[in-house]
Amino acid sequence: MNKKIMITTGGTGGHIYPALAVGKKLLDRGMEVIFVGSSSRMEKDLVPEEGFKFVGIDVFPFQNFRKILSNIKSFLQAFKVIKKEQPDIIIGFGNYISIPVLLMGTILGKKIYLQEQNADLGMANKLFYKVAKKCFLAFDTTYEEISVKDQHKFLVTGNPLREDIYTMDKETERERLKIGKDEKVLLITGGSLGAKSLNEAVIKSLKDIYKDKTIRIYWATGEKNFGEINQKLEDQQIKVSDIIKPYFNNMINIMAAADLIVCRAGALTVSEIMQLEKPSILIPYNSIKVGQYENAKILEENNAALLYSDSKADEAIEKALEIIKNDEELNKMSRRVKNLKKSNAADKIVECLDIWRS
Ligand SMILES: CC(=O)N[C@H]1[C@@H](OP(=O)(O)OP(=O)(O)OC[C@H]2O[C@@H](n3ccc(=O)[nH]c3=O)[C@H](O)[C@@H]2O)O[C@H](CO)[C@@H](O)[C@@H]1O
Predict the structure, then answer these.
(1) Judging by DSSP bridges, how do beta strands 32-38 and 53-57 pair with one another?
(2) CA of 159 to the centre of ligand 1 (A)
(3) Residues comprising the binding site for UDP-N-acetyl-alpha-D-glucosamine?
(4) Which residues are recorded as binding UDP-N-acetyl-alpha-D-glucosamine (predicted)?
């Protein structure tokens, strides 16, 4: 008999894309899948666009007692949707958005699974791993940090990535993007939300980058900063074209075509870099809460990436323009990344779920 799986996730691409990857595998194998996320963040569009049923709840960050109170409605909504849909299992993909469904699911005696994208366990997964059947981890370093008595709750699978990444090839993607034989592709991305410091550093060097005909830049600015950037570029008489955008839907394809990536160290971007064996310069988001520094350290400690702090974003761009011309250095970094690659995580996760016996 087909089982029903409830997936709860949201907030940023880094939490949503791995959930979609697992959701698609489950659909392919005949399961019914329903997503629950925030009614106001990017999952409300991204998830239905991918053809999934989506229920939005009015959930807010749990920063203080007042915010916890304002979340009472979200707990009631979560309770109602679980009662109505009667899922066989619930999978949480981290972030505060997953908390109401995970809590109500636990109270209602549902089987809970978790997926952690980052090197450090996030707040939601820390709260629920003890009641979960399994928590799937992206990186080996996370497992090593967990106390021996709890390790049986965890399994390292890697991050579930968009399926087409596993068959992508650099030359084909370069042809598709019409990249010239002598052109080097420099991708700059601040993750799904954009990165202000990185954007400001790029603006300063953009004229020089444009003058250099051997470099083709792709720059994802994030929605929030795009208007301001647009204005600054107009002032410099630089045309915003299809290579400077708030968000690229074909990010994976551009990544595959890239010679060097300058980016934040969101967990998904780091996992995609590993899968595509790309050299990178990382500028982790400056907040302990989101743990990007620990994600970046995995690549840096393997000499597979260079790491810069937010305040040194200018230097990071300068360095990028220097090493993008150095094939030997790029190849070395790329070989070292290859050692960190994992196999298809979504396949592994789906196989481990307790839904295959009737
Ligand atoms: C500020 C913040 O809270 N950041 C967190 C957020 O990152 P955030 O979602 O920003 O970053 P990630 O790198 O994890 O994921 C971004 C995803 O969006 C895709 N993409 C990005 C830009 C674009 O133009 N097009 C596109 O498709 C990337 O290919 C990637 O798949 O969730 C991650 C996963 O839990 C965390 O590691 C980050 O710390």
Answers:
(1) parallel
(2) 12
(3) 12-14, 118, 162, 192, 267-272, 292
(4) 12-14, 118, 162, 192, 267-272, 292
Q: Indicate the DSSP class of residue 256.
A: H
Half-sphere exposure of 9 (CA within 13 A, CB side): 33
> Which token pair is 156?
């390292």
CA-to-CA distance for 247 and 98, rounded, in angstroms? 25
Residue 1's pLDDT band (cuts 50, 70, 90): low
Can you give 79-123 as a three-state secondary structure string? Answer: HHHHHHHCCCEEEECCCHHHHHHHHHHHHCCCEEEEEECCCCCCH
Query: What are the Cα distances from residue 127, in Å, to 95, 158, 291, 293?
Result: 11, 21, 17, 22
Contact between residue 352 and residue 155 where contact means Cβ atoms under 8 Å apart:
yes
Whether the Cβ atoms of residue 30 and residue 3 lie closer than 8 Å to each other = no
Q: Ligand 1: residues within 6 Å at CB? A: 12-15, 17, 94, 117-118, 189, 191-193, 220, 247-248, 251, 266-269, 272, 285, 290, 292, 295
User: What whole-number distance in Å separates Cα of residue 341 and Cα of residue 347?
Assistant: 15
Pull the structure tokens for residue 11.
């907030």
Residues 6+ apart with CB under 8 A from 257: 170, 173, 174, 176, 177, 179, 185
For ligand 1, atom 2, the nearest C-alpha belongs to: 290
Q: What percent of the chain has pLDDT over 70?
A: 99
CA angle 157, 159, 162 (to 5 degrees): 125
Amino acid identity at 111 = K
- Other Cβ atoms within 10 Å of 235 Cβ, number: 9
Contact call for residues 280 and 329 (beta carbons, < 8 A): no
Residue 288 confidence class, pLDDT cut points 50, 70, 90: low
Amino acid at 183: E
Q: Tokens 């551009």: give the residue.
A: 254
Rounded to whole angstroms, the Cα distance separating 9 from 19 reads 7
Per-residue pLDDT tens digits for 139-152: 999 999 999 999 99
